[in-house]
C-alpha cells in the first residue's frame, strides 16, 4: 500500500468512529489497491476532454462519484434572478458514458477493472450549479459527497476540483451542521481531515478560502495553481519544442480523432468546427479564429493532472508523496498541504514551473494513444500494451556515503516487443542536493556521494520502453535513503 495511504489509514483507524459511521471498509473486504476518487467538474471544453481521457483510464481507479459543480466560468442560473453563464448543460456526461458503452467490450479485452456503463451512470450526480460559489443549497451532488466522506472506507478519498469547490464545501458544511457541538465532533473532524484529500485546479470559486480552509484547517490540499496550464489552452508557450509533436494535429488525428470510435469523435481540438452549445464565449472551435494553432491541434485537458497524479500503474509512485512527481506534476509542502513547484528544465537548465508536467507529455500521450486503440481493437494481440519493469534489489533502499549501489533492472513485454532500458536520476525529487553518476543499460551502479547526509534521499528511475506502436513505457522509482 502506498506510503501516504498507509499514513492516512493508520490515523483514521486510530480515531474512534462517531455515531453514524460503521467499521472500516477493510472489514468488508473492499480492495484499497486503487485510488478512490470523486470528480467534480464544471462542463468546460477542457473538462469534457479530461473526462474522455478519464473513461479510458477508469479501470485504474475506485471511482466514487462524478459530480457536476459550477465555477466562476460556468453556472446554470436559478431560473429567476440569476441568469446562466457559459452553461453547457448536464446531458453530455451521460452521452459520453453511452459512447463509452460501445467501447467497453473491447477495453475489457485489454485490461481488467473497467467499470460497467451502468456503474458510471449511477455515480453521476448534479451538485451546486446555480451560481458561482453557491453553497447554501443541499443538492444531490453535495449529499453524495457527504455520504462518501462519512462512509466506512477509511480513505484516502481524493476529491478533485476541476471546477469550483462549492459542492464539496456544501457537503462539508452539511457534516459540520449535523455534528458540530456534539461530543463526537472533534474526533469526526479529525478523522475526515485525515481521510479527504482535495486536488484543486486553480481557485475557480471563493469557497476554498471562504469556507473550507477556515472551518477545516487540517484538511489536506494538493494545490495546482499554475502547472496545469502547461497541459491547457496555451500549451505552445510551455511544452518544450521537442515534445510538442505529441500535441499537434498530425499526431492527434492519427492517434485519436480518426478511426477510434464515437467517443473520441467528441474530443475537442483547436479550430475543429465543433461548437459547444451554451458556451458562445469559447470561440476556440471556430476555424477562422486562433490561427496560431492548426486545425486539430490539442486544445486543453487542464483538469487531467488531477487524476494523472494518482497514476501508479506506471511505476512512478507519485501518489505516495506529492513531492515525488509524475504524470500529474510535482508539488512542494505548504501550510495546507502541497502546491505546484518547479523542476529544472533539461532543455534550458532553468527552474521551470511547467516542466514537472511537460517533461512527461510524450510518454502520457503515447499511453493514451494505446488505450484509444484498445477501444476499437477486439483482439488483445492486435494492440500494444505496456511493458513491465522491475528491480531485483527492491524500490526502497538505504546506503552509506561512499557505498557503491548496484541496481539490476529487468523488463518484460506482454506483446513480445523488443525493449530498451534507461536509468536516470530525478534530481528535483531528491533531498540530496546534487547528482550521481549512473552507468547505462539495464544494470546500473553509482557511488553514494561522500557529502550525503543521513536521511537525504536519491531518486533513481528505471525506464523500460517497448518497440511497439505507439512506443510505451513502464518505470520503477528506486529511492535510496542515506544512512
UniProtKB/TrEMBL annotation:
- Keyword vocabulary terms for this entry: Signal
Tell me the first and last residues of the signal peptide.
1-27
Q: Does the keyword Cytoplasm apply?
A: no
Q: Which residues form the Cellulose-binding Sde182 nucleoside hydrolase-like domain?
A: 36-331
The reply to whether ATP-binding figures as a keyword in the UniProt entry is no
Q: InterPro entries per the record?
A: Ig-like_fold (IPR013783), Ribo_hydro-like (IPR036452), Sde182_C (IPR048527), Sde182_NH-like (IPR011483)
Q: Where is the Cellulose-binding Sde182 C-terminal domain?
A: 405-482
- One Pfam family of this chain: Sde182_NH-like
**Gene3D superfamilies assigned:** Immunoglobulins, Ribonucleoside hydrolase-like
Protein name, UniProt field: DUF1593 domain-containing protein
Q: To which species is this protein native? A: Paractinoplanes pyxinae
Amino acid at each position: 500500500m502506498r506510503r501516504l495511504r498507509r499514513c492516512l489509514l493508520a490515523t483514521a483507524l486510530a480515531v474512534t468512529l462517531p455515531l453514524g459511521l460503521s467499521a472500516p471498509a477493510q472489514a468488508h473486504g473492499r480492495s484499497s489497491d486503487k485510488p478512490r476518487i470523486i470528480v467534480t467538474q464544471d462542463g468546460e471544453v477542457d473538462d469534457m476532454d479530461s473526462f474522455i481521457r478519464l473513461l479510458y483510464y477508469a479501470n485504474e481507479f475506485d471511482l466514487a462519484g462524478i459530480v457536476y459543480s459550477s465555477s466562476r466560468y460556468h453556472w446554470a442560473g436559478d431560473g429567476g434572478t440569476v441568469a446562466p453563464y457559459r452553461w453547457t448543460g448536464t446531458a453530455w456526461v451521460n452521452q459520453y458514458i453511452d459512447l463509452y458503452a460501445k467501447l467497453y467490450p473491447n477495453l475489457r479485452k485489454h485490461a481488467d477493472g473497467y467499470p460497467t456503463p451502468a456503474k458510471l451512470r449511477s455515480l453521476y450526480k448534479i451538485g451546486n450549479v446555480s451560481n458561482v460559489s453557491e453553497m447554501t443549497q443541499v443538492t444531490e451532488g453535495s449529499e453524495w459527497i457527504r455520504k462518501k466522506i462519512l462512509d466506512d472506507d477509511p480513505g484516502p478519498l481524493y476529491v478533485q476540483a476541476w471546477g469550483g469547490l462549492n459542492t464539496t464545501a456544501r457537503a462539508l458544511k452539511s457534516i459540520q451542521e449535523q455534528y458540530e457541538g456534539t461530543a463526537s465532533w472533534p474526533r469526526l473532524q479529525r478523522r475526515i481531515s485525515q481521510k479527504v484529500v482535495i486536488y484543486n485546479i486553480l481557485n475557480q470559486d471563493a469557497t476554498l478560502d471562504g469556507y473550507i480552509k477556515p472551518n477545516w484547517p487540517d484538511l489536506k490540499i494538493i494545490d495546482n495553481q499554475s502547472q496545469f496550464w502547461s497541459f491547457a489552452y496555451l500549451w505552445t508557450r510551455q511544452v518544450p519544442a521537442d515534445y510538442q509533436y505529441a500535441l499537434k494535429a498530425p499526431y492527434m488525428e492519427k492517434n485519436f480523432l480518426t478511426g477510434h470510435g464515437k467517443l473520441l469523435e467528441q474530443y475537442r481540438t483547436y479550430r475543429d468546427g465543433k461548437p459547444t452549445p451554451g458556451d458562445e464565449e469559447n470561440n476556440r472551435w471556430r476555424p477562422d479564429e486562433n490561427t496560431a494553432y492548426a486545425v486539430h491541434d490539442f486544445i486543453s485537458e487542464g483538469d487531467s493532472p488531477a487524476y494523472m497524479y494518482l497514476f501508479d500503474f506506471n511505476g512512478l509512485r507519485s501518489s505516495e508523496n506529492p513531492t515525488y512527481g509524475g504524470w500529474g506534476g510535482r508539488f512542494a509542502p505548504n501550510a495546507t498541504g502541497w502546491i505546484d513547484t518547479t523542476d529544472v528544465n533539461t532543455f534550458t537548465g532553468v527552474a521551470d514551473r511547467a516542466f514537472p508536467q511537460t517533461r512527461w507529455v510524450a510518454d502520457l500521450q503515447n499511453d493514451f494513444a494505446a488505450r484509444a486503440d484498445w477501444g476499437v481493437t477486439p483482439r488483445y494481440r492486435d494492440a500494444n500494451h505496456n511493458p513491465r519493469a522491475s528491480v531485483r534489489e527492491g524500490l526502497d533502499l538505504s546506503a552509506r556515503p561512499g557505498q557503491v549501489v548496484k541496481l539490476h533492472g529487468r523488463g518484460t513485454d506482454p506483446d513480445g516487443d523488443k525493449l530498451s532500458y534507461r536509468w536516470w536520476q530525478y534530481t528535483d525529487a531528491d533531498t540530496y542536493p546534487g547528482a550521481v553518476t549512473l552507468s547505462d543499460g539495464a544494470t546500473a551502479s553509482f557511488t553514494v556521494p561522500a557529502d550525503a547526509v543521513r536521511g537525504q534521499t536519491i531518486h533513481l528511475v528505471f525506464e523500460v520502453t517497448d518497440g511497439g506502436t505507439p512506443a510505451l513505457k513502464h518505470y520503477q522509482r528506486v529511492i535510496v535513503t542515506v544512512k
